[in-house]
Amino acid sequence: MTYRDLLVHLDGSEQSEARAAIAVEVARAFGAVLTGLYGESDPHVLVPASRDPAASLHTVAERIETAFRRRAAAAGIDTNWLTAMTVNDTELIKRVLFAARHADLVVLGQHRDGERTASVPSDLIEQIALNCGRPVLCIPSVGRFPTVAARVLVAWNGSREAARAVNDAMPFLLRAERVRLLAINPDHSRDAYGEEPFAPMQRHLASHGVIAQCETLWVQDSDVIEGLLSRLGDEGIDLLVMGAHGHYGFPYLYRGGGTRQILRSMTTPVLMSY
Which end of the chain has fewer CB atoms < 10 Å from its terminal CB, N or C? Predict the structure, then answer.
């Protein structure tokens, strides 16, 4: 398994260019075709007097496409280009979802609310990760990421979502310099973990040539996500792999709560699958 067809969502935000750079590097590493999707919604662009309803967004889209194609060409990457200019967030999410279902990996970015008039919904990553059926690589809005997936942390809890994430991240895991398999409070999920929380997954990864270091993290239930985020910084992790669902692996959080908290607070790229 590898990534041959990538999709990156781009927009008029400051962090969009950095996201494009990461997507190009990932595509180059795997010899993949990269599709750039410019997508923003603006409820104010459609007015009866407008001869070109999306004119304000077209100008931005053309600028971003030019920069995207120039960057990809310099890296020797084949590209495609799509646009999704809508008047509401729901329609934009639908358009991005449709495109995402035709890619091996989707690269999305964390967004700050109220950053500009033409906008991206704040829950775009969550909606795409939970509904597209593809792995999503989430890039934080703040920070520089010269490497992605050299040092990988897998948040393992024995759930369906975690198993899917490990499988979807395998191309990254095979290329990583270091992989750490982390069980968080395994006693809370003993039915999923079994008596040996690491052994089966460690053997599975080894069968693919991935040698994972194994560790258990014990934290108070209310501090699960904080503990996980802290570990990322302490160990210089440049990719977190986890299931896109907070309910099973992180006890006592409301359904999806772990996912939302990670997406709000992440400072490291995160690969999520559902």
Answer: N
Q: Please provide residue 41's backbone torsions phi and psi, each rounded to the nearest 5 degrees.
A: -120, 140
Q: Can you give the pTM of this predicted structure?
A: 0.89
Rounded Cα distance, 95 and 7, in Å = 13
Which of 76-80, 185-189, 197-201, 242-246 is predicted most confidently?
A: 76-80
